[in-house]
Records
---
Amino acid sequence: IDFYTSFSEYQSTFENIEALGVGNGMYLAATNSGFNPGNCTFTRVFMDIYRANGKGFYFYTPDTGGQFNITKFQQCEAIDTSGTSTTSIGMHFRGSTTSYFRTKNILVDSTNLEGFTTAIQFDYSVSNRVSLNYVDVGANGTYVKFDSNSYNNQVEILSSYVAVSRTVTMVDDANTNENQPNILKGIECYTDTGSTVNATLTRATKLEYMGITGVGTIASTLSSRSNNQNKLVLTRPDGTVRKLTISDLDVVTVSST
């Protein structure tokens, strides 16, 4: 059994929705090329995904539909309880692959994603803002994944955990647009004994205020970009201050002006 929305999400509010033991959770899509669903809010939604390789929340802009956008999720949760998943996704943002329409402008706040292979995944999706309250992933799982066509997204994880002897990827980012980077920030994560935290980054990836601690092994690429280390503050002779953001591979020439 899949739990699907079969109603128009436009200018609506949905509260206190719970589905237990379902194959997939909430699926929201733009299916009319002349209409963009959105302007809606979901509060206190719980999805228990019992079938292996299911999805908790799925936001989709298909190739032949309109654009799914302007939606808010708050105090929601999805959990993969199958115990056998290898490709499950907690929250999937997916836009059109053949048109300029992308899944965009979705705000997620105070939400938990637990036990999925990938906690949150962006494909052809731009300008979304996500603040997760708690996240953990399964064996060989990924916390946040961006494809090469997803940019200007921001993800915050206020609390997360890597289990004993588990190998995970904190962020897998394929975007190379340095003018519109994906940003992972405010990450607090405890790594348990024997665990390993990896990362796949590009020059465009921005990591801010990373707090990955514990007794596990943490990839040096995560450590080297922590705490805004790519910020350069210049003070001019007249006392005014100019702030620059640079990558660790850039060469900066500074003059007195």
---
Amino acid sequence: FLYLIGTAVFSVALALLFPLTNYEVSSLSLPWLSEDAGNAYWLLDNHTDADYFSSTIDATPYRDMLLSMENDQRFSYLICNVQSIYPDNVFLGDRLRGVVINQAANDIFSVAAAEGRSFAAADFLIDEQSEIPVLIGSDLANMLSVGDVFQASYFGQSCSFRVIGILSHDTMLYRLDTPIQTEDCVLIPAFFPAEDRHPVFEKALLQFSFDAIVFAPALSFSDLYRLLWEKAVLYQIDMVGFGRVAPLLQSFLSYRHQL
């Protein structure tokens, strides 16, 4: 009982502190449901980076829930997040801006290569021991070419990246409500690392994958909220945020869905 009261107080405090962030509900409190909410929402989990680098976090329920989210045919689960990678080659600089994207986001954002090839379904089924296929922005084409392989640190794990294509200039991506400039980025496919091989790396990627957009053109807000809440309870995942995306992104996703 005291835990529920504390959670409710925390939710009210967030609403007062961040009135312009579109923060809507907590999965641990009674939801204030609104049918006038469109059909695209951002989703956040309740853990910090430090939590995921801790040995006390069990990665299994997070992996299971993410697989459930990505395989659910009732909505699209769109991962599109920014994460720096740190190349070994000083010629590439000390840091490159990575953008991690899953297949659903790749498809709905219509990511295409102007040179080389675009991502294929198999590119999202790799593990960290393989060469990770990447697309690069046009500004990086003076340093890297299609077919080049380079080493870089990715969430603290040394990985090999192979350039398979150069992004077209009209590529448009969003990280939650924020547009992402792609000219200087390295586009990386979201993948699940092998279980228990590199536990810290695995937890970092799983955490990263929970900051996502849920796009459900056929579901009402209340139906989608209940569906996600049931998943969170099933897998015992503590979800924090469930908010509407900005109207511009809402319109963009709806347009892409109709193509």
---
Amino acid sequence: GVAVDAEAQEEREEELAKMLKKDPLDVRPVDTGLQPHEELWVRTHGGRSAKDVRWIDDDTLLFSSWVPDGRGNYQPDLFTWAPESGKERRLTRQANLREAEPCGDFAIAVHRIHGGSGLVRVSLEDGSTTPLTDPAPGIVEGNPRMDSACQTVAWLRNDGEWRVIVASPDDLKGTEQELTLPPGGQPLSLDVRPDGKSVVVALGTEGWFDLWERPLPEGDWVRRTAGVGGVFDPDASTDGSVFYLAQTAQGFDLHHLPADAP
């Protein structure tokens, strides 16, 4: 975890002021717009990296990590980690689970087996799983995301082309709704607003990946960014804003789209 280092920012401004005072003909460095950050927590593990990290609550993170089974084959299982205490707990064993989205006392994760994948419900208490969709060869499920009330789940499905699916976690098969995409739209990743009223999708159209938003259950798509170059992994905040990764000429940066942005 990281946070803006206000002290380091102040020190940098003081050094720049001294430099310009010493030589008035000198030029201030180009402002990158990035503030210095300090590390709050660092998880270190020599042989097991964390993937698909999500907050369960204010104190605990959920992630997947590839671990060997009894035959030496690697597959992903779910773990929890408390940054303040450093305590780590293995939640599942040989379950082949990834991309888990926690909400309340459960998570929805992707289970892949025999060339197919499906969504499962995972108990955050004991790691037990319940299938929510039927795995089938040639079908890829991914990127499940829920609202804060655990009433709406959205995810990506590929059975020949990528589609956006929305349903109720309590009855996935009976409530599935496919969202018609804008012409030529190719979804890459998504998130559900905490209030469950809309879904935010990184969507490719006309050679660009931008953020698009669509009200739920009905409504029209609205383009929220334009010409960024490439956007990935939107994360909708409770204040109405959206954090996302953007690919720019300088590389990958974390961007913030305010709630009142047009």
---
Amino acid sequence: STYTYTDFVTAFGQIDSAEGKTVTLMGGYTFEGEVTVAEDQFIVFADSAEYDIDEAAKVTVAEGGTIESESNTPVFNKIYGILVVMDGGDCTPAESSYEVTSTDANDNVTYTSAATAIKTATSGTTVSIVNNAVLKDAVTIQSGVTVEIADGAKLTAQKGITVAEGGKIVNEGTLEIGKEYDLIVAGDVESAEGTVTLGTDSEMTVTGTVTVPAPLNADVNGAYYSADGVTVYTTVAKAVTAVTAMDLKVQIYAVGT
């Protein structure tokens, strides 16, 4: 075999003529720009170094493409930008390297920051927050998009968050809203197993539904009732409809403006 030592950009540009269509990275490297690992192409990371994706970069592993380590352990130290593993692609990043995963309707998986994942999500996408994540700007969860907060994970929305009609948050960890900013819910927030906290001078306005373990110590615009071990915030009309369907005596409380 013949081995050629050069920089990654040069080596990757010649990957189809390399033995086994394989490029091995021997030292630490930060991916920049856009890189697509195509079918039957292999990038192998040496175990002794760290590999990152720059915040402005996007790495795509296409169907049949592979990024792996020498010892077949998870790859990447930090994903500041975007890693997309298409259905049929082979790449397993370390869980500590990313904030969220999202899976689209075609089973393509994206690993990135929470803000990028939520802002770019389209209908049918589930964004899974597996590590603590901070949203520095206000975001909207659009119709058809589900954001899952894993047990033990925390999503902090410093400037508030809006859940559009048809959008959903499934929270088994912690959802925290920054002080003086709001949680606006026209869709659904399912947090019977999680925690929702609002900062000082923050409000929650509900025209959809928010399910929590107990009434919140917060300013809320809407109505709520407690039944079956949970508290549900919604509109008065929706609360009346839900309670009427129950074979129970349940008090409805109108709150806020």
